[in-house]
Amino acid sequence: MIAKAATTYSTTFIVTAVLLIASYSLALAQGDRSGSERQSSETGTRAESLFQNALVLSDNQDSESARLRLQEAMHLWVQMREPGKAAKAALQMGDRCKQAKNYQDALNYYRQALDIKLLPGAVRANALNAIALIYSELYLHDLAVRYFNQALDQAHIINDFPAQTVALTGMADLYRQQGAWKEALAFVTKALRLSKKDQADADPALLYLKGAVSQEQGLFENAKGAFAEALGIYGNTGNVAGQVRVLCALSTLSLLVSQNQTALEQAEHAWKLAEGQVKPKMSFGDEVNARELRWRASLSRARAERALGQKKSALKSYFWAISHFKAMWWEFYIATETSALAFREEAQAAYREYIDLSMEQGQFKEAYELADEAKARVTLNLITARRGRPPSGDSKQAAILRELSGSIARLRLQLLASGLGREQQAKLEKEIEEAEYKMQEIRLQAEMKHSRERLVWSELANADQLQKQMARDQMALVEFSLGENRSFVWLFARGEFFFEILPARKEIEKAVRTYLDMLAATPNHLYIERELAKLKEQSEALFATLFGRLSSQIERDPRLIIVADGLLHYLPFEALIHSGRYLVEDHEISYNPSASMLLQRQDSRGGAETADRMELLAFGDPIFGDELKASVAKKPKSGPIDVIRSARASHGFQLPPLPRTRDEVQYIASLFPPDRTRLYLGKDACQTGRGRLLSSEGVVGLARAFLNAGARSVVVSLWSVSDISTGHLMKSFYQKLSGNLGNAAALRLAKLQLLQGPVETRHPYYWAPFIVVGKP
Question: 471 and 402 in one domain?
Fold first, then answer.
């Protein structure tokens, strides 16, 4: 019994000891866990505090300090294995910057979110959508489509319906911006179907797009219903920006159905909401949004007031609309050249309406100054910036771009190798595409970083100044503005100011199209006299349409400067007939994107040092490649450029080489000092005067690129011509130019030689397309 009791006691002791040890270990573990949790809690609190501090610094425009605080907070969250929190913080900071239209910082924050490892799929989809939305606001459609597609793919994988809806809505808006209404409707329909499937509340942005598409299709009642529903949602959620946007759309719709008083009431409501956003001591972001709302609401009010005959009030509203637009453009949309061009293009309708009303009210010089202000503002500011300071560079960035460029070249060589399978080809093409997009975004970052250096504000010409300048230089300037209901032409000559009212844009451009179809068609030498007679008849009629009663005023002015508008940019005025003679026979004609640019060049006395000045830069013996394919976001649209017959080169066949141009440029080079001559043989653009036609900037093409790069004038061709006749004309032109004649004078004499030569070259087809753009 004693032994048994001892054994029992021993066992009990062991069990008790084990339990005590286990309890002690558990207490230690709980203590460690408690300490770890306490430390983790402190780290989380520290991260949250840093993040909140970053938000405050961002609102106060201390972007560098805000960035550092956020990075520290994100690092702490990643240490805590909470990458989702870190990414969401970066997205929130990006949203703040986007609201203030600080696009560069916003993109950087969104990219930081994407760079986090083990990122939750929903957060990744949101970050991709956020980047796409910024590119959409900046009119960078290729990049926007790329990121929206990536967001869609990610959202499909995880069945994230809200993220899919955002991407589909964004794609719809991209197509709406380009006027591709059928494609926009397809994406709107998909997004609406997805919303119903998700049983989510109606998205007001999607309803707004549905209304815009319905309006374009002429389904006014459907549009009104969609806009009204969107307005109700925005009102219930207190979204003032959304309310203003929809009210402006409703006002436009009311004008379309002749409900002018209703349109004014809706515009007034929008204007009051917009003005209500203006408060003392506003944050920068709030100030930005208020200005944008005021620009759109003021424009809607101006249009409604004019429709009701309230012309003085309308003039005032147009003034404020344009004022807010200019501030918006200068403060935010010069971030990239693309956005600077596109946002000005959006305002062209407002400028034309303001010009028309000013002319109607007898404010003739004011209207002219508005017309010139609307033209080539981006180009003018780019040129001013280049004259004022050298462009900034980034050696590290340049090295990355060189590396990417070399990588693309190597991949392209691999793609040309024989024996590649389809999978290998597809892989290489994907790698090339990725590298090209990466290069595009790196260049974009540099462009946004140095936007204030690239675009410098420049003063505009006024009518009185222009009158004096034209009298002093013994020149005449003719400037056109094509409007929807009527157009205008102004003439400055001999210290006087004249104007004429012309037909509407559509009527003028129809006449120009018909004339260019004849002029740019290769002549049939068997019937050349008959063709010339018909062409001259059309030419004389077009001259009368474009100049009207001003025709008698230009007879005594041998030097004419043309500032064109719309399709007139493709019209060689030298080939117009006045009093039985081509204008080239009596006038030395040159072209400028705007009068302000002309005066800047006329007044410019500086330039490159003599030792650094290049007198001749020539390209010859071009090697033509395949036409570039448009991206899905850039649906090709027919436009004025299609009237030039040489556009048939873009219909799928390879253009032959122009071997004589090598001899031609080599001969021309012999007329200039060898140390100031540079030749590039083997590659060039054949129709240098062609390009994308914008209302605000004119032709955006190779000629504009040379002007932006510092050239004071460029001789360009409007269509492709026989290289034999072109060679004769160019040799003659450069012979005269090397004899110290001005550009326009030398080109005129070269044209006259062809005009007075054999019948094979008398037709304007051979000499008319060559024009001088820039300083005469």
Answer: no
Structural domain contains residue 577: yes
Question: pLDDT by residue (tens digit) across 614-625?
Answer: 566 666 655 544
Among 135-139, 309-313, 357-361, 523-527, the range scoring the smallest mean pLDDT is: 523-527
Nearest to residue 689, comparing CAs of 584, 546, 598, 572? 572
The Cα–Cα gap between 129 and 83 comes to 19
| 592 and 484 inside one domain | yes
pLDDT digits 0-9 by tens, 73-109: 999 999 999 999 999 999 999 999 998 888 999 999 9
Q: Do 439 and 533 sit in the same domain of this protein?
A: no
Average pLDDT score over residue span 308-333: 94
Single residue among 597, 616, 635 that ends a domain in this structure? 597
Q: Strands 487-493, 496-502: parallel, antiparallel or unpaired by DSSP?
A: antiparallel
Residue type, 77: W
DSSP string, 246-270: HHHHHHHHHHHTT-HHHHHHHHHHH
Residue type, 83: P
Quick one: 445 and 479 in the same domain? no
- Residues 138, 228: Cα–Cα separation, whole Å: 28
- Rounded CA-CA distance 737/671 in Å is 9
Instruction: Examine residue 708 and state whether it is found in any structural domain, yes or no.
Output: no
Q: Could you tell me which residues are beta bridge partners of residue 492?
A: 477, 497
Residues 583 and 501 in one domain: yes
Are the C-beta atoms of 570 and 640 separated by less than 8 Å? yes
Question: Is the C-alpha dihedral spanning 680, 684, 686, 690 positive or negative?
Answer: negative
Render pLDDT for 35-71 as a digit per residue (tens, 0 to 9).
566 767 888 899 999 999 999 888 777 889 999 999 9
Question: pLDDT band for position 478 (50/70/90)?
Answer: very high
Task: Indicate if 560 and 441 belong to the same structural domain.
Answer: no
Burial-class residue 16 by CB neighbours within 10 Å (0-12, 13-18, 19+). exposed
In a domain, 731, yes or no: no
3-state per-residue secondary structure call for 683-739: CCCCCCCCEEEECCCEEEEHHHHHHHCCCCEEEEECCCCCHHHHHHHHHHHHHHHCC
- Max avg pLDDT among 8-22, 34-48, 560-574, 614-628: 560-574
Instruction: Tell me which amino acid residue 436 is.
Output: E
* DSSP sequence for 191-258: HHHHHHHHTPPPPHHHHHHHHHHHHHTT-HHHHHHHHHHHHHHHHHHT-HHHHHHHHHHHHHHHHHTT
Amino acid at 190: K
- Is 636 a residue whose pLDDT tops 60? no
Q: What pLDDT is recorded for position 665?
A: 67
Handedness of CA 544, 546, 548, 549 (dihedral sign): negative
Helices (H), strands (E): how many in the chain?
A: 32, 13
Write down which residue in 579, 597, 615 finishes a domain. 597
Mean pLDDT of the chain: 83
CA-atom Rg of the chain in angstroms: 33
In a domain, 578, yes or no: yes
Per DSSP, 552 falls in state G
The domain of 437 spans: 395-414+425-449
- DSSP states of 355-415 as a string? HHHHHHTT-HHHHHHHHHHTSSHHHHHHHHHHHHSPPP--HHHHHHHHHHHHHHHHHHHHH
Half-sphere exposure of 11 (CA within 13 A, CB side): 6
Kindly state whether residues 476 and 576 are assigned to the same domain: yes
- 437 and 484, same structural domain? no
Q: How many Å apart are CA 332 and CA 101, to the nearest integer?
A: 6
Measured CA to CA, the distance from residue 236 to residue 169 in angstroms comes to 21
With a pLDDT cut of 90, the percent of the chain lying above it is: 52
pTM of the predicted structure, to 2 decimals:
0.84
Pair 660, 723: CB distance under 8 Å:
yes
The closest of 672, 656, 660 to 620, measured between CA atoms, is: 660
Q: Which residues of 457-470 are buried (b: 16+ CB within 10 A; e: fewer)?
A: ebebbbbeebbebb
Total domains in the chain come to 2
CATH of the domain at 552: 3.30.420
